[in-house]
TrEMBL record:
Keywords: Electron transport, Heme, Iron, Membrane, Metal-binding, Respiratory chain, Transmembrane, Transmembrane helix, Transport. It comes from the Bacteria. It is found in: Membrane. GO terms for biological process: aerobic respiration. InterPro entries: Ba3-like_Oxidase_I, Cyt_c_oxase-like_su1_dom, Cyt_c_oxase-like_su1_sf, Cyt_C_Oxase_1, Cyt_c_Oxase_su1_BS. This is Cytochrome c oxidase subunit I. Signal peptide: none annotated. Belongs to the heme-copper respiratory oxidase family. One of its GO terms (cellular component) is membrane. The chain crosses the membrane at residues 8-26, 46-67, 87-108, 128-150, 162-191, 211-233, 245-263, 283-305, 326-347, 367-387, 408-428, 448-473, 507-528.
């Protein structure tokens, strides 16, 4: 990696860690408010801090970390030209201006609309314009990454692309196609409506376009973690990539199946034909397959590596894993958490069970296990080697130890917080509500103990955040100078060659478009046809309806 490339990745990752601190503080405040322990001062609204929390952690932290990490992977595997880097910086600044605009409106209390910004909740237009800029800025990263691989392929005709570069491009294709939905609703519906050019907004169209984006969004978060699991963790444990083809296949399946499934967030939504909900639920079960392939592949890597090192017996290989190396330990806890987290996802996707958990705090528990444990612990695991690589410093034994402690704190905090959320959700506690006794109803009194459990977990997690920010500052400014390894695993020597068709992007993008058209065209036409009078899909300029 060149010095200039390192600076670029570090800029993105620094924004992610600043977001972690701000967003984490808001999370702590929320759990305290919900448990009845704290009343917010100075007229600050509960939904204001909840919006900061969701937007800054769910959208800002993730996007910046992912883009920074992916630039590092691309720079390392296929290089980056000066021109590509300039465009990448331009994207960074566009995103940053957008982020500041959005954050300012939320902090001023002009956008208490949560990270899903469901209509008819309305924010200040600057909130939506800022969001649009963040998305447009991220497209710069897409095109830079596409160009990097294209340039490399041109110079290496007929050669298989490096696995990590393939994975980055797959993730950015997914992102580009998915963000078209949210860009459409923001640009065509929300901005004109919030500016007063449109009198009304078609709620169902906006929610459908949001979830067309909202579900692949979660795989955009997950896939960088999978990049580390497939191609970096094997190197850290002293092994090889189990199967290059299987890894590529998993990523291709994510491109195809992560998008046409948005209705599983809208199963209780009136106005969508049940047949199409059923079809999208079936497709949701298809998107579970690449995760099961991943679980299989990881177990195989762990077992083969252990056995090669001479650890026999049924589970003897388990002992060889470098439990004391935080670069392995943190992502490993993330993987373990993904077993209950993914199971929860399967429960959510099952139509009848969804009726029990939808809009309860169970769902919040689900995504704190998925994105806030599996994904974030893997991102922390990546940070322990990536930040030293970017800053030319060393991960010391002391920071390694602190990292292990940080991981344990996170696990304990999340166990209490997410565990309480899951149980309270099953007892009917709604998500997204401040403290209330619900006029003293008996059912609500059952939730209180779990809300206190969430506050305890939230407090422990905040300590974890402070520790992680300290580790970030240490690795950026204070750790001793030196060189840290950029761990990229190789394939097994006797591996079967990867079939060429896996790199046929036109095929995968074509199939994805077909699936999207299949899953969305008829229901979308239905939605528009049955829109209530006075609520056309796009009601502008005023008076058009
Ligand atoms: Fe989800 C709601 C369904 C995965 C995030 N999800 C959400 C929301 C978020 C989110 C943020 O169908 C809330 C949105 C909102 O605000 O309303 N989700 C699924 C399904 C999966 C799934 C089927 N979700 C994720 C991931 C997320 C995420 C990943 C973030 C990163 N989710 C839903 C549904 C809803 C939902 C409904 C809507 C609920 C409602 O009604 O509102 C699947 O992708 C899960 C598949 C995963 C597995 C696990 C495989 C296990 C692996 C680990 C192996 C471990 C090893 C370690 C090898 C089947 C890969 C072993 C080591 C040893 C030492 C033993």
């Amino acid at each position: 990696l060149t010095k200039a490339n390192k600076k670029l990745s570090l800029a993105f990752i620094a924004v992610a860690f600043i977001s972690l601190l701000i967003g984490g503080l808001m999370g702590l405040l929320q759990t305290l408010v919900r448990s009845g322990t704290l009343t917010l001062p100075w007229g600050i609204d509960y939904y204001q801090i909840l919006t900061v929390h969701g937007v800054i952690l769910g959208l800002v932290l993730t996007t910046y970390f992912i883009i920074g990490f992916q630039y590092a992977l691309m720079g390392k595997t296929v290089g980056m030209t000066v021109k590509e880097r300039k465009i990448a910086w331009l994207g960074f600044w566009v995103m940053l201006v957008g982020t500041i605009m959005t954050a300012t409106t939320i902090l001023l209390g002009k956008a208490n609309v949560l990270y899903t910004f469901y209509a008819p909740l309305k924010a200040h237009p600057v909130f939506y314009i800022g969001l649009a800029l963040v998305i447009i800025g991220s497209w710069f990263a897409c095109f830079v990454n596409f160009h990097q691989l294209y340039r490399w392929k041109k110079a290496h005709k007929g050669v298989k692309s490096p696995l990590l570069a393939f994975m980055v491009v797959a993730n950015m294709i997914l992102w580009l196609i998915a963000t078209l939905g949210v860009a459409a609703t923001v640009l065509v519906q929300f901005i004109p409506w919030s500016l007063g050019y449109a009198e009304t907004i078609n709620v169902l169209v906006s929610r459908t376009l949001f979830w067309y984006f909202g579900h692949p969004l979660v795989y955009f978060w997950l896939l960088p973690a999978y990049m580390a699991w497939y191609a970096i963790i094997p190197k850290i444990i002293g092994g090889k990539i189990f199967s290059d083809s299987l890894a590529r296949l998993a990523f291709v399946l994510f491109i195809m199946f992560s998008i046409p499934v948005g209705f599983h967030h809208q199963l209780t939504e009136p106005g969508i034909d049940p047949t199409w909900k059923f079809i999208q639920v079936v497709l949701t079960f298809m998107v579970i397959i690449p995760s099961l392939l991943t679980a299989f592949s990881l177990f195989a890597t762990f077992e083969i590596t252990g056995r090669k090192k001479g650890f026999g017996g049924l589970f003897g290989w388990f002992k060889h894993l470098p439990w004391k190396d935080v670069r392995f330990f943190a992502p490993m806890i993330g993987m373990l958490a993904f077993i209950p987290a993914g199971t929860g996802g399967i429960i959510n996707a099952s139509h009848q069970l969804n009726a029990v958990v939808h809009n309860t705090i169970w769902v919040t528990g689900h995504f704190h296990l998925t994105v806030a444990t599996t994904v974030i612990l893997t991102f922390f695991g990546i940070s322990y080697w990536l930040i030293p690589v970017l800053t030319g410093r060393k991960l010391t034994a002391k920071i390694n130890r602190l990292g292990i402690i940080q991981t344990i704190i996170w696990t304990v905090g999340m166990f209490f917080m997410s565990g309480s959320m899951h149980i309270a959700g099953l007892l009917g506690a709604p998500r997204r509500s401040a403290y209330s006794t619900y006029s003293g109803t008996e059912q609500a009194s059952d939730w209180i103990g779990y809300q206190i459990g969430q506050a305890i977990g939230g407090t422990i997690l905040f300590i974890g955040i402070l520790l992680m920010v300290y580790i970030f500052l240490n690795l950026t400014f204070f750790a001793p100078k030196g060189t840290e390894e950029f761990p990229i695993a190789e394939e097994e020597k006797d591996a079967e060659p990867t079939p060429k068709f896996l790199e046929n992007w036109k095929l995968w993008i074509g199939l994805t478009v077909v699936l999207i058209l299949f899953a969305y065209t008829i229901p979308f036409m239905d939605i528009i046809q049955h829109s209530p009078p006075g609520s056309p899909p796009f009601d502008w300029p005023i008076g058009n309806s």
